[in-house]
Amino acid sequence: MTSSEEVDMHDFRRVFFRSDEVPKFANILALDLDLFVKIIRDEVGLSRFMKIFGISDDINTILLCPIMMRFDEIMTHERGYDLASQVLNVCNVHHKKLFCHITYRHLLVLSSDENGCIVLKKVITIADDFWKDEFLDLIAQHAHSLSMHDLGISLIQHVLELDFTKKTTQDDARLHELMAEFDEALSASDIADDQLHKLASKLMLDSDLFVEFVTTRRGSLMIQIILGKSEEIDKVLLAAVKQCFIDVTTDFYGYRIMIRTINAFKKRGNLKVYDQILRLIGVHALYLTKDLDVGNSTVQRAINLHHQDCTTFIACGLQCHYIELSFLKHGSKIVEMLIDDRISMVPLVLIMIEIVKCDEDTLVRLANDEYGNNILKKTLELAKEHRDDFFGDLVDKLNPLLDSLRGSLGENIVAIIDSETETVKDRIVSQGNN
């Protein structure tokens, strides 16, 4: 069926015009995926395939299966666009939606390939409003990584030019007008940095407007592709991020603007901005930790960097609140990550000090709490391993409470203290015998 094979055109026409032969032929193609891909990638093969595809919904159903199974391989080939166009032109609504769904699932792969990106733009353009909204949402979620390469930026620009995307902000007149100014600047064939710099400066002068802008899908996409265009623009946007740090880092899209800002400066070799952002996370650690949606995740990601200064900043930012956070599911997660991060002993020392100073009632509640119990147990184990002096203080603090903890969730705490007591007794007996 390809140009490299001796195929009798008469036989092909016979199959094509006999309705009973076409389904059999379609099934044969669908069963051999390697052959199917070979045919699609061949000019003559694709031409003949497209004469069959579209004959009926049943034939389309059969032939869509191998397309879906080898989607990336087919759509990133130079002939993928022609096939995608055929699917979108001749298929029924159900099959078109299915094709949109498969394209949506492969968005990141397609966006990083020149041929795939062309297919992706085509599908987004013809998709219904439901799928346009889904694509817009997914692109906004991954805009920070898409904006790191030219194809990704071109995809973001394509989405921003769609009427559907522009309609998403029309309910807010002030915001919509400002975005229209950005649209005009970004759509110019020769984008002027000074014009974008003026618009970025306009955003910075109004903190509320900046937050509203970057926390919308459309606004965040615009900022993603503006960042990195010039150092002057980046400095203005960095100042705005710092000024509205809490609002930015506790928002799904705003957080990605912060990451993109860091990356823009790192690309120029400026690592100071990275340290400044980490310091700000530490300064606002308590507020961010209590924000369950994005802020808490921001702190977790910062701790996972295993950056000594960053861990210390966060540890100090949470000082005097470790026990309070240990009663909370998300708060205890942060506390556990901090004391587990051996790159700094500061978090362990700070929580041990809090426990030693804690009143007895709170300590009993902590030992019997679902989350607090784990923190107390881990603190005791780490203190015994790394800080004997503090471990002794913790044992002295907990000893009077052991009877009230027996038979409760705090039984594991009792076991640790009893084991240590027995160890000390054995050591004393051993020394006495010597």
Automatic annotation (TrEMBL):
Pumilio repeats mapped onto the chain: 101-137, 354-396
Highest taxon above the source species: Eukaryota
Biological process terms in GO annotation: post-transcriptional regulation of gene expression
SMART domains: Pumilio
Keywords linked to the UniProt accession: Cytoplasm, Repeat, RNA-binding
Keyword Cytoplasm set for record: yes
A Gene Ontology term for the protein's cellular component: cytoplasm
Membrane-crossing segments per the record: none
All residue ranges annotated as the PUM-HD domain in the record: 79-421
InterPro entries: PUM-HD, Pumilio_RNA-bd_rpt
UniProt cross-references to PANTHER family, sorted A to Z: PUMILIO HOMOLOG 26-RELATED, RNA BINDING PROTEIN PUMILIO-RELATED
Subcellular location per the Swiss-Prot or TrEMBL entry: Cytoplasm
Protein name per its UniProtKB record: Pumilio RNA-binding repeat
GO molecular function: mRNA binding
Primary localization: cytoplasm
